[in-house]
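User: I'm preparing a small set of examples for a lab meeting where we compare how different chains pack in three dimensions. I only have the primary sequence for this one, and I'd like the structure in C-alpha cell form so I can line it up with the others. Please keep the answer compact; I'll paste it straight into my notes.
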Amino acid sequence: MTLVRCVNAGRVFGTGPAAVVALHDVTCEIRSEQRIAITGPSGSGKSTLLHLLAGLDAPTTGSVQWPGLGDRDGLRPGAVGIVFQGPSLVAPLDVLENVALPLFIMGWGEREACAVAHEALALLALDDLAHKLPEELSGGQLQRIAIARALAPRPRLILADEPTGQLDHETGSAVMEVLIRAAWESSAALVVCTHDPSVSSRLAEHWTVTDGRLGTGDVACSH
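Assistant: Understood. Below is the C-alpha cell output for the 223-residue chain.
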C-alpha cells in the first residue's frame, strides 16, 4: 500500500532574489514496510523532504498526498510518528506525560495512555526516568524519549531525522533496533535521515539528496 506519494514536489523559501530552492521536483512513493535511509550533505534538503512527507510543511510546487493514511490534517499524532533532530519535548511535562501526550491528543483515557507510554519507555530502557523533567536529562536521554513518544501511538509511517546523532555507537545501535522492530510489528514504513553509515547500512533502501535533488536506487524517483 502506498502511504505517501510526492509528485513534482518542490519547496522554495523566500521570494525574489533572496529565494532559496530547498527541493527540486521530487517524485517518489513510500509504501508500507519499506525501510529507507536518506543520506546527503548538511543543507542538502533532507529535513525539508522529511517535513513534506510528514505534512508539517506544504510544497511550493507539485503535490504530496497520503493515499494510505488520510488527509494531511489528520496525519499526526496517530498515523505518522516523527523524531526531530533537535530537542522537542514539552518542558513543563515530565517524561511519562511527554510520551503519553500524543495519545491524550488522540482522545485516549489517562490510564490506558500512561500504560502505553510506560511500555514505550521500557522499549528504550527509560522507564526509570518516567517522572523526571526534561531539564534534568542529558541530550541523549531526551532524544531517546522523543523516539519513545513517536512510537507510542504505533504509527504506520515513522520518520526520523538523525535519530542517533546525539548517541554513542552502542546506544545508537540499540535505538535503531527498537525503530526497526517497532516498524516491523506495526507493518509501518520507516524513513531515517542520517549521516551515519552504520545506520544507513541497516535499512534496505538508500536514497540520496544532493542540492535539493532526490535520487534513489531501488524505487522509481525522478528529479
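A couple of notes for your slides: The two ends are 23 Å apart (CA to CA). Residues 218-223 have pLDDT under 50 and may be disordered.

User: Perfect, thanks.
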